[in-house]
Amino acid sequence: MTDASSDSSIQDNAQRREDLERLTALVQHSLNNPLAALLAEAQLLAMETNLDPEHRAAVDRMTELVRRLISLVRGLDSKVNEKLFPR
């Protein structure tokens, strides 16, 4: 590979990484607000004192699932970069 093609490949890779980081940030931003709202709603439901055990268990599951999604979204950028751009 020539120096020119190597430089072009490095620039292409850098541009691809930058585009991916921008897309990842957009996805994270787009998902964070609805997930935070869902978590807040689930937490408010969990504070209800008159929930029967079945509904309380459902609210607890919802809360846990939303927290897992929030964690996944927060780690999205590092997971994508690890897979596509291993060091």
Describe this entry's structure for a reader.
This protein has helices spanning about 5-45, 55-75, 75-85. It has about 90 residues and is mostly helical. Helices cover about 85% and strands about 0% of the residues. The model has no long low-confidence stretch (mean pLDDT about 85). The longest helix is centred in the first third of the chain and has 44 residues, at about 5-45.
Provide keyphrases for this structure.
87 residues, 3 helices, single chain, mainly alpha
Overall spatial form: rod-shaped
Number of DSSP strand runs: 0
The level of helicity is over 70%
Element string (H = helix, E = strand): HHH
Low-confidence stretches: none
Strand content: under 5%
Summarize this, please?
The protein is an all-alpha fold. About 85% of the residues lie in helices and about 0% in strands.
List the helices and strands and how they pair.
Elements: H1 3-46, H2 53-74, H3 76-84
Helix pairs in contact: 1-2, 1-3
